[in-house]
Amino acid sequence: MRTVHVFPAGDWSATATRLDRLMPGKDGYWSDGKLFIDLMGEPDGHLFAGWTREDVRLVDAALGHRPTWGLLVGVSTHIDGAGVVRRRQ
């Protein structure tokens, strides 16, 4: 499983509504067996759990603000990601 953090523009409810239309889900979690998506918010303390201060600072700088919610997306290893993974420079 590969994991990606996604910080969509807009509000979480619109994102949740769109995910509800795209795949099965319940209570902020969606999965089609290949993607496993968890909607996470800062109030529950899980959004940046395990992140270093420097990593959070880099996200803040890249977005121009500190996100208050995001998606944690697990990607099944059954999906070949080699073509979309690029080396960090």
Note down, in words, how this protein is organized.
This protein has 89 residues and is α+β, with helices and mostly antiparallel strands. It has a five-stranded antiparallel beta sheet, covered by helices on one side. The protein is built from two helices and five strands. 25% of the residues lie in helices and 27% in strands. The longest helix is centred in the N-terminal third of the chain and has 11 residues, at 12-22. The model has no long low-confidence stretch (mean pLDDT 85). The chain has helices at 12-22, 53-63, and strands at 2-6, 25-26, 29-31, 35-41, 69-75.
Main sheet summary:
5 strands, antiparallel
Gross morphology: globular
- The spatial strand order of the largest sheet comes to 1-5-4-3-2
Going by helix content, strand content and strand pairing, the class is alpha+beta
Intertermini distance: 23 Å
Explain the layout of strands and helices:
Layout: E1 2-6, H1 12-22, E2 25-26, E3 29-31, E4 35-41, H2 53-63, E5 69-75
Antiparallel strand pairs: 1-5, 2-3, 3-4, 4-5
Write a brief structural summary.
By secondary structure, the chain is an alpha+beta fold.
